[in-house]
Amino acid sequence: MKKQYQVTGENTVPFRNAADFCVGTGRMGLALQKEYFEQLRYVQENIGFSYIRGHGLFCDDMAIYRSYEDRAGVQHTEYNFTYLDRVMDSYLELNIRPFLELGFMPKTLASGEQTVFYWKGNVTPPKDYDAWCTLVQVTLRHLIERYGREEVLTWPIEVWNEPNLRTFWKDADMQEYFKLYKVTSEAVKEVDGELKVGGPAICGVEDEVWLRSFLEFVRESHAPLDFVTRHHYTSYQPKWEGHYGYIGLHEPEYAFKELERSREIVDSFPEFNGMDIHITEFNTSYIPQCPIHDTNLNAAYVAHMLSRLGDKHASYSYWTFGDVFEEGGVAFTPFSGGFGLMANGLIPKPTFWTFAFFKKLKGECVHRSDEAVVVRTKDGGYRGVIWNVDGRNTGEELDFALELPAGKDDWYCLMKKTVDEECCNPLKIWHDLGEPANPSKEAVKLLQDAAKPLVTTERIEAKGGALTVSSHLKKNAVQYFELAPAAIKSDVGYSYEKTLQQKIEDSE
Predict the structure, then answer these.
(1) 55: closest CA among 282, 375, 281?
(2) Which residue among 2, 246, 385, 386 is least crowded, i.e. fewest CB within 10 A of its CB?
(3) For the whole prediction, is pTM greater than 0.85?
(4) Residues 470, 471, 476, CA angle at the centre, nearest 5°?
(5) pLDDT digits over 319-352, tens only?
(6) d(Cα 351, Cα 296) in Å, to the nearest integer?
(7) Of 97, 83, 198, whose CA–CA distance to 150 is shortest?
(8) Nearest Cα to 200, choosing from 221, 188, 218, 186?
(9) What's the CA gap between 26 and 281, in Å, rounded?
(10) In this predicted model, what pLDDT tens digit does every residue of 204-232 receive, in sequence order?
(11) Measuring CA to CA, how many Å separate 252 from each of 3, 32, 35, 230, 361?
(12) What is the rounded distance in angstroms from the CA atom of residue 9 to the CA atom of residue 384?
């Protein structure tokens, strides 16, 4: 497959890049683990997200809500922020801030016993809505006192998670969720009217009905709403074998159209027209034991998603940054199909580099297509990401050529970083090693080394005010390139050509 484009430089191309705005995480209590912190630090050092969102703020392992009966039979409520402070301190240390999801229900405040996940998050409404609102307010006031009002005002607040699914909200009771949303959003605003709150964090099932009904409810009840949230996964139902689910992917256009419908619904309400929509979770598969997450196909497919998700959305949060994650239980192996950008053992997966590459796309967009995004930098150079999604496993490769405007007769350095199934595929190395559940330190180091992109450089001369970037991408490859002016500035007497011409000479 050959693709050739010419950039004239006369017009810019719309491209809103929010790939680094937010990333997902396992439940908040996992942030107390050493491996979690190390993975997040690695992600922040190499990508650098602004926000992090996950479940479990009010789950019992965070120990915030405590209710007990004293010896006289009097009921008391206490609030304990020891663990919360540790988590927030560690986030801020890594220059990342919470996108606060309010949930799930503390056991002693819950109206029922339905739970979700290995770690048993309670998904029933509160038995006392006043007590729930007090919990929300006391928590927010504590955060403001500890971290400062101006800081906490920048933290978006989302009410619950996927209430349209019975798994996450008892009976998927729409009216009960609307009640929860109204009282919670009003409680948030009572703490500080400038705090930003939104919902309904829906995903998939009857999402259009839920979104329209939610907006109608907000309009009629005058409940506070600063932004809309939803989730987005692009796979069909998995076929299970043992611990693992194998999936088929949606055609990209089908996936984008689903999101466009949400934008249309929001904009159909005059009160909410143009309101920010945050995708607070997205990935290919929606299950945490799906091997596609560990593959180069996932990396290439997500690159295509990142090239267009900013068209209709304020942000889109990849679910998740790492595989310290226990929804389905503790992973048996480092490559367990987890959602994360990082496999356990500090091993970047191919999709990690997709985000690292898009992070660098800062500048004026001059080209966007179904296989590339290119921006022009202030110094007259270019940066771009190219991908080749082989979603039907045809083995088809991509020859990509892009002619770009340049300074007359200038020399440029073209640097490429390539991630494909041959040069950056730790999953294959792990397979070749015998798929060890607990690899040795030497094996982990090998996997880390195998998880880095292939870096190549070359010098290109611009002729006639133009130069051409040519790339050959194997199937499911993602490639980042930088093209920057690079005039030679040699030290006195230094010659690269003469350096390479040195050889062994015959002795006389």
Answers:
(1) 281
(2) 2
(3) yes
(4) 155
(5) 999 999 999 999 999 999 999 999 999 999 999 9
(6) 7
(7) 97
(8) 218
(9) 12
(10) 889 999 999 999 999 999 999 999 999 99
(11) 19, 37, 34, 18, 22
(12) 15
